[in-house]
Amino acid sequence: MPDLEAGNMLAKQLSFLANADAAGIVLGARVPIILTSRADNVRTRLASCAVASLVAAARRKPALALAAE
C-alpha cells in the first residue's frame, strides 16, 4: 500500500463489498500484539487472536528445528 489512507480504503472495500473478515495485529515486537478497535465485533477479535497465535507459532517453529539438529 502506498499510504495509510489507501490501506484503509482497501480494508473497508473488502469488508463491505466482499464480506471479508478482518484481523489486527502489530508485528515487530518480540511477540505479536493483538490490536482491535472498540467497534470490532467478536468474530474480528477472535480472528485477531487466531492470526497472532499463528504468527507466534511460526516464529517458534524454526528455533525448534535448529535445536533438533
Main features:
single chain; 69 residues; mainly alpha; two-stranded antiparallel ribbon; 61% helix
Given the helix and strand composition, which structural class is it?
Answer: mainly alpha
- Note the overall shape: globular
The count of DSSP E runs of length 2 or more, i.e. the number of strands, is 2
Beta fraction: 5-15%
End-to-end distance: 39 Å
Largest sheet geometry: 2 strands, antiparallel
Major sheet: arrangement of strands? 1-2
- Please, what is the oligomeric state? single chain
**Rounded radius of gyration (Å):** 15 Å
SSE arrangement, N to C: HEEH
Average residue pLDDT:
87
Which regions are unreliable across 5 or more consecutive residues at pLDDT < 50?
none
Number of helices: 2
The percent of residues in helical segments reads 55-70%
Give a topology summary:
Blueprint: H1 4-18, E1 25-26, E2 33-34, H2 42-68
Antiparallel strand pairs: 1-2
Q: Could you explain the architecture of this structure?
A:
- By secondary structure, the chain is mostly helical.
- The protein has a domain of 47 residues.
- It contains two helices and two strands, in the order H-E-E-H.
- The protein has a two-stranded antiparallel sheet with strand order 1-2.
- A hairpin with a 6-residue loop joins strand 1 and strand 2.
- The model has no long low-confidence stretch (mean pLDDT 87).
Brief sketch in words of this structure:
The protein is mainly alpha-helical and 69 residues long.
